[in-house]
Amino acid sequence: MNLLLTNFLQILPNILIIIASTIVALFLITFIITLIIFKNAFGRGKGSMAEDNELYKDYIAEMKEGGEYFLSLNPEHIYINSFDNLKLHALFYEHPNSKGTIILMHGYHGEGICDFGPVFKPFIEKGYSILLPDQRAHGKSEGKYLTFGIFESEDCLAWARLIAQKFPNRPISLHGVSMGGATVCMTSNLQLPSEVKLIVDDCGYTSPYAIISSVRKSMKLPRFPFQLYVGILTKVFAKFSLKQKDSTVCVSECKLPQLFIHGGSDRLIPVEMGKQIYNSSSAIDKRIAIEESADHALAYMKNKEKISVDIDYFYDKYMV
Prior knowledge:
Blueprint: H1 2-42, H2 60-72, E1 76-81, E2 87-93, E3 101-105, H3 112-115, H4 117-125, E4 129-133, H5 150-166, E5 172-177, H6 179-187, E6 196-202, H7 208-218, H8 223-238, H9 247-252, E7 258-263, H10 271-280, E8 286-291, H11 299-302, H12 304-318
């Protein structure tokens, strides 16, 4: 017995070294995997997600046709500098008899010309001018990393201030889809110009932390250490915290009219997130339009007649 114990004690250091090495190797491998995911997820958008996504195969032709229509109007290229000195780009179409400007904020790794293809013509026919920004780290806008709405909300504020300065007393709406929806929600409690009359969030999420956690679960990645690593990487590389802003908090501090749109079958941003933001809103007038059969960002295209009723109600009432 003593001999066995002696032998065990002799090999124990080696066993501990093997265990420690294995743990370190696992953490290192997990970190490398997380770093690769981070660079892809938070890095510069590489064009339209919709074009390569099976979700939109039945609608991509309509989206492209709408985008081509908008470009045929020869919108102006305009630029501003962000609060952190990035050069941001947008396309601007000035309606000859404009009754207001709609600032359309596109989604994650998307492009406005595609994301909003189906709504350009209806909005322009109603007499609205359109501002179509490239969100930071997308399109012609500078930036190495996107921030899931946190810094983008400051960019949205800057665009709203520019339009208000160019066209005093003309109504402005902030209208976003997916990450753009979260962006306008996170903009809603900032020092907006009085010209901003309406916030429209189409399938936005509650917070960057919540949506990253939701995606992590869908990918069956462990909460620890993945979530910890992502939090560290966002602070080190992109200079923000995943918990820095929350859409539910922001809309609770905003009194502007707010319309929320969501697909009841959304597999990317759960409809429960849309309901949570809606329930948190302290808007003077608010409504949530849910199309039960619609997947992510497809509520309007799935049932234009139904969703248009709510869109028209808010635009006709408040964009005057």
